[in-house]
Write a structure and sequence with these properties.
Length: about 200
């Protein structure tokens, strides 16, 4: 079970994982619509009051494209034999943790609480005046903790897939991987902010 959750790339074919990843991307994008989630960056997830059907799909397309562009380039630098499918598949599979986080916004739970906090901050309320209910505080803390775990899970999945695809071994290769994720985040943020949809 641990292998399946952290490194499904060792014992499953690329084709099976690619098909599975594409299905999960479609399902995850639809979940974004159902739960008002925006994947507004390669490693980001935010909730809004209203999300149109097309927004999460375009977000995912940009995020996957950004990650692919930089990781494929780095993969080719590390190992000239790196294939497109070997990079694309881990990207698709690694985004699953973000899709699971959308369920936290059932009935707009998270978006309502965060909107309330932002509204009070805009009114120049002091932190002690935010007056959140114990339930809201617990929900936000739980969401924050699980979000961090999901981000770690995303990075572990992506790294394990990238490692197999490129045969990366050195500290320099790991640094290139980390810088590629940062670059993908910046690129995706810029592209999403430029699009009005």
């Amino acid at each position: 079970m641990k292998k399946l959750l952290l490194n499904p790339f060792e014992k499953n074919s690329e084709t099976r994982l690619l098909v599975f990843g594409l299905i999960l991307t479609a399902v995850g994008s639809y979940l974004g619509y159902l739960f008002n989630a925006r994947y507004d960056g390669a490693i980001d997830l935010h909730f809004t009051k209203n999300t149109t059907l097309v927004q999460p799909f375009i977000d995912n397309l940009i995020n996957i494209g950004s990650l692919f562009a930089v990781l494929f380039l780095v993969g080719k630098l590390i190992n000239a034999k790196t294939r497109i499918i070997d990079i694309l598949t881990p990207i698709l599979i690694s985004r699953v943790p973000f899709y699971l986080l959308t369920f936290f916004n059932f009935r707009n739970c998270i978006s309502d609480v965060t909107a309330s906090i932002v509204e009070k901050i805009d009114l120049k309320a002091m932190p002690t005046e935010l007056d959140l209910s114990p339930f809201s505080m617990m929900l936000l803390m739980l969401f924050a903790m699980i979000s961090i775990l999901c981000l770690i899970w995303f990075i572990v999945l992506l790294y394990n897939g990238f490692k197999i695809a490129t045969n990366c071994k050195t500290v320099a290769h790991k640094l290139y991987f980390a810088l590629a994720i940062v670059a993908a985040e910046i690129i995706s943020k810029i592209l999403i902010s430029l699009l009005i949809y």
